[in-house]
Amino acid sequence: MSEYTLSGGASAFAVAAAVRSGQVKAVAVAQAALQRITLRNPAVNAITRVLEERALAEAATVDAAVTEGRDPGPLAGVPYAVKDLFDIAGLSTTAGAARLEHAPPATRDAEAIDRMRQAGAVLVGTCNMDEFAYGFVTDNARWGQTRNPHDLSRFAGGSSGGSAAAVAAGMVPLALGSDTNGSIRIPASLCGLYGTKPSHASLPRDGVYPFVHTLDDIGAFARTAGDLALVEAVLRGDAQPVPAASHRAAFLDGWFARNLSPGMEAAIGRLREGLGNAPIVALEGVDRARSAAYLITAYEGGQLHRDGLRIDPLSFDPATRDRLIAGAALPEAVYQEALAYRAVFAAQFADIFRQYDVLIAPAVYGPAPLIDDPMIPIDGAMQPARANLGLYTQPISFLGLPVVAAPLAVPGLPMGVQLIGAPGCDHTVLEFAAQLEAQGLIASTPLPEAA
Fold it and tell me: Which key words tag this protein in UniProt (predicted)?
């Protein structure tokens, strides 16, 4: 057990059990994770800052608790990393922006990090991201391009791509990120991971650099459904409920069945067959919902950075700056109209959720795009991946619904689906993911061969 635990292949459950039982020391687990970062990060570029001193101190605290017979917590000794928009006491919170690299350091940890520490988890590093979380590919002017551990010539997704790549490469079993329009679900899908986007505002955002307050949420990445449920329970501060016997599922059609790669279309078809040819339902106005989410993002992001853009526009990443400027110029009436459409769109989901517990839709169109060819096909034309990988995630973000991104059981490059629940039914989608994983209909993610 100890060799496997130290290799990076073990689940968070297994690591915590080994540490609690005394089979392995948390300090040894942390040292092994730090070594894996040293070996693997240069190729992937997932980690921006290694927190060795803090990690070893937190691990020593866990070991002391075990020695003294105290419960070190459900994540005892589990190494993890966080997207660089979570406050970490004593460090500048960059939000992926060079202009904030030397900002005054945070005076305390973000609430989510504090909860992870209390659960025994060990923070080992910060993760790369698109500047100010505005992008889907984690291509950063200051910290560089994060690459997909399954194929280094491809995107890891974004904006939480560093967090996803760190887990997919086996550097850590867990990582935290944020999701506004798909920033956890997209990299989870492209890197073959489980990821969670909770019911809006249900997980603590205190101490997390904002982007779009109407849509922002935090969440986690993991290689198994069980690990994902474990870390979400820690973040939520509640106990696991008794699982339901079954869940009624349906697949979203229409918008969510268009523009899929042949491999994704076939994989979703196999998943539907595995679920007894589950029903298919279609929604109206999905294109309008995506446009509304896009406008809300542009407006709120532009307003948030309006003063900085006015004072020092050249300090922004060029890939981010122009979109923020365009958003800052949007009339408030357009923003209000976009917000108003939420009630109309939500009414359709409310009707569907009276019949079904979980809705299934693709997270992305197919496998990760090539970095040197950053385009994806949409309605017969090639469009930039950075702005359009959220084709299927943005309409769901628009309503703040809980989602688990789950990896499909496919050969070759990873692809994933969204398991979508009704508002507040986060446990339902987590349970459903675990059931599908147990049935072999979705995958527990192995490490890439290079890892």
Answer: Transferase
Of 25, 83, 178, 197, the catalytic one is 83
* pLDDT tens profile 89-115: 999 999 999 999 999 999 999 999 999
**Topology of the domain comprising 249-438:** Amidase signature (AS) enzymes (3.90.1300)
pTM for this structure?
Answer: 0.97
- Chunked mean pLDDT (size 10), the chain, 451 residues: 73 97 98 98 98 98 98 98 98 98 98 98 98 97 97 98 98 98 98 98 98 98 97 87 75 97 97 97 97 98 97 95 96 98 97 97 97 93 91 97 96 96 97 95 68 52
* 249-438 has the same fold as 2-236: yes
* Catalytic status, residue 183: yes
Per the annotation, the verdict on 83 as an active-site residue is yes
In whole angstroms, what is the distance from residue 175 CA to residue 160 CA? 10
Contact 330, 303 (CB under 8 A): no
Catalytic residue, candidates 11, 159, 160, 189: 159
Residue ranges covered by each domain of the chain: 2-236, 249-438
> What topology is assigned to 2-236 in CATH?
Amidase signature (AS) enzymes (3.90.1300)
What is the dihedral angle through the alpha carbons of 243, 248, 252, 253, rounded to the nearest 10 degrees? 160
Candidate list 160, 178, 183, 444, residue with the active-site label: 183
197 catalytic? Reply is no
Pairing of strands 122-127, 79-83: parallel
The identity of residue 283, as a single letter, is: L
